[in-house]
Amino acid sequence: MIKLKAVLETVAKITHEKVKRNDTQETNGTRAFQIQDVFSLENEDSDETTTLIDKKDNVFVMSNRKSKYPVLQVDLRLISDLVVVIVSAAIGGIIFSCLGQPVIVGYLLAGSLIGPGGLKFISEMVQVETVAQFGVVFLLFALGLEFSLPKLKVVGPVAVFGGLLQIVIFMCLCGIIAVLCGANLSEGVFVGSFLSMSSTAIVVKFLVERSSTNSLHGQVTIGTLIFQDCAVGLLFALLPVLGGSSGLLHGMVSMGKLILVLSIYLTIASLLSWSFVPRFLKLMMQISSQTNELYQLAAVAFCLLSAWCSDKMGLSLELGSFVAGVMISTTDFAQHTLDQVEPIRNLFAALFLSGIGMLIHVHFLWSHVDILLASVILVIVVKTAVVCVVAKAFGYSVRTSFHVGVLLAQIGEFAFVLLSRASNLHLVEGKMYLLLLGTTALSLVTTPLMFKLIPYVMNLGVLLQWFPSESSSTNEEKVSIIEAHNRLH
């Protein structure tokens, strides 16, 4: 009981004695044998149950404390909560899809309605959030499966160096602002990395619908998004360092250890990716030639094992799942694996985003709607300006640079994953957490509308001579890009 007090901080213990059945039939400690005794799982030695109450009035029932027999137990509360979350997420996704909005926002709003800050259909979120964490793992696993180094090489300089420069600029800007406002530097650096992420799913979908994936601004945008997606895995590895409460020296030592462990982990993963993984997947394909069930299970197991190993090495579940996807992406089975994992990813991703939505307090957002709208406008303006300047520095025309800047002006869906991880590390808490959550959701909602305004803004820019027409800017751009490449080499 002393050990239990240290964990639960028990302030009350209630013992309920069970009334023994057929006491009147017992004589001298014996009673007649009954056939029901053969099937009864009730422990005759356990005549009491214990209820513990902690200082926050949480009640813990010590069930089957001395049971001799394995008993199948079902958590009906968890089943009920999962049903509510999945149904509400489906309804929210359908509604927003019909309205031409991202289904991600539907999941978030559905979660906010059923959570403690809304209608309170779900009040205890621990179990739901635990299950929903698989959504993060499978999201990053699928992201790793889609990773393609050849795609990144198409617009290599601006995608890699420009993308890195954007992240560094946002980190520095937010870090300086945080220090000037009296906040923690680490919190400001995280907010900068958080804001630098853009939505791969929404932007790529828009470019595909407009048949702009092969255009110059489309290639630059996709290359930058791919780099950002790769940077997500590294940012997960850096979050524990930012979340530490130690000094600068200890932080540098921790960073050094982290880089060493990360290098070892990536080296092992690289060796396995060409020695073990292709043979393993080929074997699974041969075994599961009749059905994909075994291959699907093996792919999920490989992802979870990699995530578990990464976590045990002091990195993160998210980084491990991303690396698992990258390892498979180097083989010929990447697309097949993605096809098998995608339904699982979609289900758990909906659970995860709905779980994030349950943390949104509608009353808080409504009370701070002015700050929220101002934050979204500020994010759009600043991101457009920073991306435009970076792209222009790499030799692209003002027109293309501005186009890329507008396309990347929102906050991406993987920012929710970063925010969730940062919250677990107590890096971002309280009102800042809710504000970032609301700003991200609102920026995703406004993104489709902003994309529809791009042609009008472009035409207006040509009329006002902010930038030249598309034909003249293309010729000018080719020359400037060649000069930029020559400077780099």
From TrEMBL:
Chain ranges of the Cation/H+ exchanger transmembrane domain: 86-452
Chain ranges passing through the membrane: 82-110, 130-149, 161-183, 189-208, 220-239, 259-281, 346-366, 372-394, 401-420, 432-451
Molecular function as annotated in GO: potassium:proton antiporter activity
Keyword entries, A-Z: Antiport, Ion transport, Membrane, Signal, Transmembrane, Transmembrane helix, Transport
Signal peptide segment: none
UniProt-listed Pfam families: Na_H_Exchanger (PF00999)
Subcellular location per the Swiss-Prot or TrEMBL entry: Membrane
Any one Gene Ontology cellular component term annotated for this protein: membrane
Membrane disposition: Multi-pass membrane protein
Keyword Signal: yes
Protein name: Cation/H+ exchanger transmembrane domain-containing protein
Biological source species: Gossypium tomentosum
